[in-house]
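Field reference: sequence -> structure
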Amino acid sequence: MREGLFIKKNKARWEKIGAGLSTDADEIAKDFVQLVDDLSYAKTYYPTSRVTKYINGLASKIYLGIYQNRKEESNRLLRFWKYDVPLTVYKHGRIILFSFFVFFLFYTVGFFTAKHDPTFVRDVFGNDYVDKTEHNIASGNPFGIYQQGDSFFMWIAIMINNIIVSFKYFGEGLLLGIFSLKALAQESMRVGVFNYMFFDKGMGAKFVLAVMIHGLLELTAIVMSCGAGAVMGTSYLFPGTRSRLDAFKEGVKDGVKIVIGLVPVLMLAAFYEGFVTRYYTMPLLPNLLILASSAAFIIFYFVVYPILLKRKERSVHA
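Structure field:
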C-alpha cells in the first residue's frame, strides 16, 4: 500500500485517538492494539517516514496513560488512609466529637448508677457473668476472662465480631443517626458499669491498665462507627444547594469511608485483646508504653493529622 493511501485510510482514526476523546477502557485498549498494528506496518514499509514517528507518538501516549493509571490504582489504598479518611474525619468533626460526648455522658451514667444501685450490675451483665468475675477477683486473677481460649482464634473471633458490630452500628444510623447513638449510649453505659465492678473492689487503676490495653482502640473505633452512622443519618437534613438525595449519597459515602478506615484499628485492638491483655500482669513500663502509643496514635491520626492536612490544603488553594 502506498504511503499516501495508508495515511488517508487511517487519518481520521488517528486524529480521534490523538484528541483523547475516549474514556472507555475497552475502547482505549482497542485503539492501542490497532496503533501497534499500524506502527508495525509503518516500520516495515515506511521506516524513515514522519507518519511512523507520528504513530509511535500516539501509541506511546496511550501506553504512558495506561501505566500512570495502573500506578494510581496501586497507590489508591495508601491514599485512602493517608488522605481520604483523615479529611473525612475533619469534615465531620463536630458529629464525631458529639459521639464522644455521648460516650462519656452515658459511661458516667452507667458508673454512678451501678454505684448507687448494687443490683444494676447484675441487671446489665447477668448473674453468671458477675459471679464468674467476682470469683476471678477473689482468686487473685480479676481479668482471667481474657485468658480463656487460644490467642490466635480469640484474635480472629474478636476481630470479626467487632468489625461486624461497627458496620451494624453504622447501618443503624439511617434514621437521623438515632439508633446509632442509642447503641452507643447502651455500650457506653455497659463500659461504665463494667468499670465500676472493679472500682468497687479497689481495682480502678488495674482496670485501666488491663482492659484499656485493647479497649482504648476498640472503644474509639466503636464510638467513631456510631458517629459515622450519625453522619449518614443527618446528611439529608441540611442539604444546602444540593438535593436531599445527593446530600444523602455523600453522607453514606463519607460514613463508609470512616468505618472502613477504622478496620485496621479494630484489627489491632483485637490482636491486643487476644495476645496481650491476657498478660495484664506484665511490668508497668510495657503496659504504659502500649497505652501511650495507642493514645498517641488516636490523637495524632484522628485529631492532629486531619487539622494539618486541612491547613495544607487551604494554603495550596489560597
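Note: Residues 209 and 288 are 7 Å apart (CA to CA).
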